[in-house]
């Protein structure tokens, strides 16, 4: 069971305190479907859903 995947590719990554992030939402746009600049999110292509999210697991 893995709730969070941690990337340790650096000495210390200054990441903001992540609160409860919905794993079902796109990690890039947080379910907004678009980026802050107004562009369509390239990760979820505007769907706002996490493509790798599998409910139930297995
Ligand atoms: Zn997205």
Automatic annotation (TrEMBL):
Gene3D superfamilies: 6.20.20.10
Protein name: Uncharacterized protein
Organism: Peiella sedimenti
């Amino acid at each position: 069971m893995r709730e969070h995947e941690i990337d340790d590719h650096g000495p210390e990554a200054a990441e903001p305190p992540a609160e409860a992030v919905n794993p079902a939402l796109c990690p890039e746009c947080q379910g907004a479907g678009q980026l802050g600049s107004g562009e369509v999110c390239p990760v979820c292509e505007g769907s706002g859903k996490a493509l790798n999210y599998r409910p139930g697991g297995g």
